[in-house]
Amino acid sequence: MMILQYYLLASIIFASNLAQGQSIAALDWIQDRILCPLFEICHQEPAHLTCTTSNCVALKFIEFGIVPDVLQKAPPEMLKVQYGSKEVQLGNNMTVAETTYMPTVLSWTTEPNMLYTLMFSDPDAPSDQDASARSARHWLVTNIPGIDIARGNTIRPYFGPGPPAGSGFHRYNFLVYKQNGRITATDATDGYNGPDKVRTCQLIDEAFPNDPMRAARLKDNLHWSPERFAAKNGLGELVAGNFFRAQFDGI
Ligand SMILES: *[C@@H]1O[C@H](CO)[C@@H](O)[C@H](O)[C@H]1NC(C)=O
């Protein structure tokens, strides 16, 4: 936030002292020569997908509150995620229909012979106003050799977003952790973070009064914490992440 405030201040000072054309050139100069090298803030906004430096990824994770709601620290790299031709871009809006089936492209920088864990979850469960069941686990694959997700162990198959009516915007986030070796997690509730399973089940039933099948599938997947799962299973560093937002759209 401080960085942005300084940048804003610098912009105002320059803009007020220079004519229009000059001021834009001056701002570009400040950004390119001072801000970019100093803070690794890239020229364009992440929304244009040019933001790949770690500070830009971190800014978006903080701006949207994934840090601290889900993570203590943002990942250093933007995970590449595509649903067909649509890219996930650090907080862009996607529809339920666009994200019903698993992404067609998912990649991150790998090291040779390493295994990775992929997580996809929603901290805004049951809603952005009442996140008392944070997080809902939507996909979990461990022991992925490189980026070959099909060869990993799927603990929880992909389950697309289904934000309930009136529950606001949900922040669906993808995280990839490097593993220190093969792990044996198989328990569907490993990473469970919740105090009260009975209450959780009630909340789910209330959220999906007309869809008992969806409610049943969700019950084992709430109160789930990516960081808790990582700690419990001795995972290594968080290497990449990305997220989009989705809200109920009548489907
Ligand atoms: C997402 O949709 C909301 C509500 O329509 C809008 O306010 C917001 O600007 C959109 N975000 C992006 C990145 O387009």
From TrEMBL:
Q: State whether keyword Ribosomal protein applies.
A: no
Query: What is the superkingdom listed in this entry's lineage?
Result: Eukaryota
Q: Span of the secretion signal? A: 1-21
The protein's matches in CDD domains, at most eight in alphabetical order, are given as: PEBP_euk
Q: Which InterPro entries match?
A: PEBP (IPR008914), PEBP-like_sf (IPR036610), PEBP_euk (IPR035810)
**Pfam families recorded:** PBP (PF01161)
The alphabetized UniProt keywords are: Signal
This protein is called Phosphatidylethanolamine-binding protein
- Organism field: Plectus sambesii
The taxonomic lineage of its organism, from the top, reads:
Eukaryota, Metazoa, Ecdysozoa, Nematoda, Chromadorea
